[in-house]
Amino acid sequence: MATDKVLSRLKIKKRVRSKVFGSAEKPRLSVYRSNNDIYAQLIDDTTGKTLLSFSSRSKDLEKVKSTKSQKSFEVGKKVGAAAIANGISKVVFDRNGYLYHGRVKSLADGAREGGLIF
């Protein structure tokens, strides 16, 4: 059974996703946060395709000993750099029902430092 906390997040996620939509020119930067790791994807919702994705489980970040927030910042920087390399400069941020605080905020700050605009 899902807990009240999980059900509340899913309710918020549904509300956020009704307003956030990504296109090929301005894809959706979706964030998923697990207990230990964080994942980020650039998604084109018109075709339903993931354009690129990164996570804190990648080989180069897994070796680095740092806090979860620092790893989130690095994931954001990598997503930003890869998006700029693919010709994407503007995105729509999808916090996926999580509060814009802590690891989600540090990923967004890293993506902005990487060159993304949102």
Explained architecture:
- The structure is a single chain.
- This protein is an alpha+beta fold and 118 residues long.
- The protein has one domain: Nucleotidyltransferase, domain 5, CATH 3.30.420.100.
- It is 40% helix and 19% strand.
- The chain has a 4-stranded mixed sheet.
- The mean pLDDT is 93.
Domain count, please report it: 1
Shape: globular
Query: What is the architecture at the second tier of CATH?
Result: 2-Layer Sandwich
Q: Spans of 5+ residues with little confidence (pLDDT < 50)?
A: none
Q: Estimate what percentage of residues fall within beta strands.
A: 15-25%
For the termini, the CA-CA separation is 36 Å
Question: What value does the Rg take, in angstroms?
Answer: 14 Å
Order the strands across the largest sheet as they lie in space.
3-2-1-4
Q: Looking at CATH, which topology would you report?
A: Nucleotidyltransferase, domain 5
Helix percentage: 25-40%
Q: What's the CATH first level? A: Alpha Beta
**Secondary-structure-derived class:** alpha+beta
Q: Report the order of strands and helices.
A: HEEEHHEH
Residue-averaged pLDDT, rounded?
93
Number of strands: 4
Largest sheet: 4 strands, mixed
SS summary, helix count: 4
Features:
four-stranded mixed β-sheet; 118 residues; 4 strands; Nucleotidyltransferase, domain 5; globular; 4 helices; alpha+beta
Give a quick rundown of the structure.
By secondary structure, this protein is of the alpha+beta class. Helices cover 40% and strands 19% of the residues.
